[in-house]
Amino acid sequence: MSQTMAQLPYHYxxxxxxxxxxxxxxxxKRNSDASRFIYNEMNGMNRELYQLKQVKxxxxxxxxxxxxxxxxxxxxxxxxxxxxxxxxNNDLDSLMxxxxxxxxxxxxxxxxxxxxxxxxxxxxxxxxxKYQTSCLYPGKVKSPSVTNGSVRLLDYQHIQIPKLGRLxxxxxxxxxxxxxxxxxxxxVTISMDATGRYYVSLQxxxxxxFVVQTVRKTQMTIGIDLNTDNFLTDSNGNVIANPHxxxxxxxxxxxxxxxxxxxxxxxxxxxxxxRDAKNYQKQRMIVADIQHKVANRRNNFLHLISTxxxxxxxxxxxxxxxxxNLLRNHALAMSISDVGWRTFLGMLTYxxxxxGKNFITVNPRNTTQTCHNxxxxxxxxxxHKLTLADREWTCPACHQSHIRDxxxxxxxxxxxxxxx
Length: 420
What we know:
The chain is α+β, with helices and mostly antiparallel strands. 43% of the residues lie in helices and 18% in strands. It has twelve helices and 14 strands. The relative contact order is 0.10. Keywords: DNA recombination, DNA-binding, Metal-binding, Transposition, Zinc. GO terms for molecular function: DNA binding; metal ion binding. It comes from Lentilactobacillus rapi.
């Protein structure tokens, strides 16, 4: 008996660009709209059910409505489809419905587990489109792979997806194609971004590692201090400059957004829907394309740095950052968002597992204020704490000269080695 996706030890995600026909684009939009509708319908029923249960007086109509909603929420696939017959259209993927229901229930589970993101909210209609389906394998298939499921690779350039049929794609890694008979497909996400580009994201799993563990052990350790002045400074004294991708196009983007706003006002004055206003849509694509290029450049930069750090060091230590708290500082909010710290730390986390290396985060408390040579903490014994303007300082206890960020990186590495 073949293992499920959750039982397989190694997982990997791949996002490839696809090029659908006009008919396939219409099918993607219909499934995206249906997925959003099912999610919102379940959210609406849950909210109504909560309000009705606040009624303490046993009114017959209220009690009957509560029972009806509870029955529909137990089996929402049939309960919602029976009321809204258009959901039974043959163009809609049945597994799309199942994934929309599962995503809503997962949102509630995450709320009960974490209590930070809040209860599920209604998904509003946006330019972007997205829905999820799943790859199923017939019972007669003894060894599931990427070539024999309901979602499968037909060759190196084409993929088969339920309801959509054959799609041309590009961008799948060679290591996936080399092991295609050992890898199976799980959840599949079909999406369109604001620029009109279509993508397919594949959740893959295997019994064997996706990256062959041939990356040699370097016996090297490194600590990194993240900051907005420079992107990072490591414990060896190396400094990587902050490219400021957003700041380089900030003026151009602001000008394009002002033009977009004027075209939106003109369309509203002429009582035209924005989706039918050609000038507005043309300008919206320009704005989206600028933002898309900024995101791509930043992600490429973060991938290069994170991969280099993981491959060249057995242990990488960074400070534990909470970007949500840092963004409350309005003076630094734009710089913090532009640098992409949270994304960078996420990349280091999964790449360390992928390449068999170690990555840990430590509490950043006083890493900047502490002398790595003698352990003296600035702000104690009648001394003043260092400010952001103090880039170099001398320890009053041991008289060791420090470069602020280099000293912090050395303290971070020392804490990581102790806590390892």
